[in-house]
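Hi everyone,

Forwarding the result from last night's run.
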Amino acid sequence: MSTLKELLNKGDRFAKHCDMRLTAVREGYARAEVEVQEHHLNAAGVCQGGVYFTLADLAFAAVMNSHGPVTLGVQNSITYLQSAHKGDKLIAEAEEVFNHHRLPFCETKIRNQHGDILCIVTGSAYRKRDVFPFEGLE
């Protein structure tokens, strides 16, 4: 049986396709990373907004599911503060703000390799009765 980190790194096929990976998972906390590459850029030459959102969503999934029950996002809001460029390392740190038994809430901040905040994502999820098949978080 896999850990939650292994399960999501392997099972989230879109995030994997985008070269993203979880690097830390604890109960109520997760970190995901990606290096901005040519295929992550939009027509203006900066990191496409969907890259931020997908990276935040990967960390969000780890936080929300760290308690065991399958938990799926139902609402997210993203605020872009600064652009990332090719070669930048994006680090998403997601933290549980409210651990409700059905509607938990999370905040994710994405920074670059210099620690500059590039965007903030907040979101809520719905916790189901099904349990994710994992053993341990890391």
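The chain has a mean pLDDT of 97.

Cheers,
N.
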